[in-house]
Structures are given as structure tokens and as C-alpha cells.
Amino acid sequence: MQESTVYRSIWKEAEEEKTRAIAINLLRRGVAINIIAPSTGLSIEEVQQLQQQLNESPQN
Predict the structure, then answer these.
(1) Total count of domains within the chain
(2) Most CB atoms closer than 10 Å: which of 4, 8, 11, 36?
(3) CB atoms near residue 20 (< 10 Å)
(4) What is the pLDDT of residue 59?
(5) How many whole angstroms separate alpha carbon 19 and alpha carbon 14?
(6) Rounded distance, CA 8 to CA 10, Å?
(7) Which residue range forms the structural domain that includes residue 13?
(8) Do residues 23 and 50 lie in contact, with contact meaning Cβ atoms separated by under 8 Å?
(9) Which residue has the higher pLDDT, 60 or 3?
(10) How many CB atoms lie within 10 A of CB 44?
(11) Cα–Cα dist 18/2, whole Å
């Protein structure tokens, strides 16, 4: 059965969110950005943005 375009789009978005959550967890544990980026497939800039959001979060 062929997956619909909408299904694939939703699946991709969920996978990207999961990857960002993993990167955030690694940042919270003090793992270096240059380790997180290639390990998750995110760019250095994306990980830096996540770190900035984490630092600005009132939960910290």
C-alpha cells in the first residue's frame, strides 16, 4: 500500500521532533555540540539554537 503524502509529512515531522528531543536531552547532560550534531544528524547551527532555547527556558 502506498503511503499518502500527508502521512509521510506527519511521520517526518514526528521524527524530527524526536531528534530534537534527543539533542535537548544530550545538551542537558552536558554533551558537546560537536558530538550531538553528527550523532543526531542535526546541523551545528540547529543544535546551537536548541541550546539557546534551553538556556532561555524558565525551567532551567
Answers:
(1) 1
(2) 36
(3) 17
(4) 64
(5) 9
(6) 5
(7) 5-56
(8) yes
(9) 3
(10) 12
(11) 24
What percent of the chain is modeled with pLDDT above 90?
88
Using alpha carbons, list the distances in angstroms from residue 18 to 1, 2, 12, 30, 54.
26, 24, 10, 19, 16
Alpha-carbon gap, residue 27 to 24, rounded angstroms: 5
Question: 42-60 pLDDT, tens per residue?
Answer: 999 999 999 999 999 876 5
Per DSSP, the residues of the chain read -PPPHHHHHHHHHHHHHHHHHHHHHHHHTT--HHHHHHHHT--HHHHHHHHHHHHH-TT-
d(CA 56, CA 27): 13
The length of the chain in residues reads: 60
